[in-house]
Amino acid sequence: MITDDGRELWTSASGRGEPILCCHGGPGLWDMFGTLDLGPRFRLLRWDQRGAGRSEPRGPYTLDRMVADVDAVREWHGLDRVPVLGHSWGAHLGLLYALARPERVSALVYVSGVGLGHDWHAEFERNFERVLGDRHPRWAELRAMERDEAEERELAVLQWTADFVAEGSRRAEAMATPWFPLNYEANALLSEEMRARPEEELISACRSLRVPTLIVDGLADNRPRWAVDSLEHALPSVTRVRLPGVGHVPWLEAPEEFRAAVADFLDGRADSSP
Fold first, then answer.
1. 107 neighbors 265 (Cβ within 8 angstroms)
2. For helices 199-207 and 89-100, angle between their N-to-C axes, nearest 10 degrees
3. What is the pTM of this model?
4. Strand, helix or coil at 246?
5. CA pair distance 42, 15, nearest whole angstrom
6. Cβ atoms within 10 A of the Cβ of 236, count?
7. Tell me: the pLDDT tens digits for 224-256?
8. Domain 11-125+183-272 homologous superfamily, CATH
9. Beta-strand pair 105-111/82-87
10. Which of 9, 61, 90, 159 is close enough to 23 for a disulfide, judged by CB 3.0 to 4.6 Å?
């Protein structure tokens, strides 16, 4: 598909049921929802965000532009209104889209997001080093050096290994297959813009959001879950599901529980938004 500023984005649809628009993590990564199974009642609308994966490797990379791209994907698939499911950074992108275009979002599923503030990083880094254990020195070595493509992939696999409670290496390898270059420019620019927006400003905006929202946390996620509390408290219509013994990618570690949480929420809440 082509955006209004002429950028080519990769997108696909799978399944025959109710459409749900998926926003992947990053920023600067690609769609990894090929492993997401919500059952036959849903049709997954997937896409690679601007500058990443199979999409054209060109910016600009701003939050407003990324939100506009979400809207373009929705429109390209011919939908007036759709549930949006976002994971990690994609959860924040889905939230920003719901805040900007609430009339286009029937429900928001906010999976493993990191909340509205930025004071969670220090705890995350401690958790990450602890979980990675004796593999952390190699991760630090790779992080500090100039890397070729094989070393870039090795670094990513090591980092993603810590996102899982069990079988982390195998699952991280699967996430890195197929492999695409990481877009560090998009990551840096979008992360900087996110840090510049005060938490209180986002809290104030969320208080007026009438889109029903499901927050899904894996309680063993390295990213501290208290970081999401201010979002939960600000939203007028929110359900929160906490999955014990689950890391950052809950649909892989607790697929049945995750599928049930999303289906139950959309059955009970999606039609209640204005």
1. yes
2. 50
3. 0.96
4. coil
5. 6
6. 12
7. 999 999 999 999 999 999 999 999 999 999 999
8. Alpha/Beta hydrolase fold, catalytic domain (3.40.50.1820)
9. parallel
10. 90
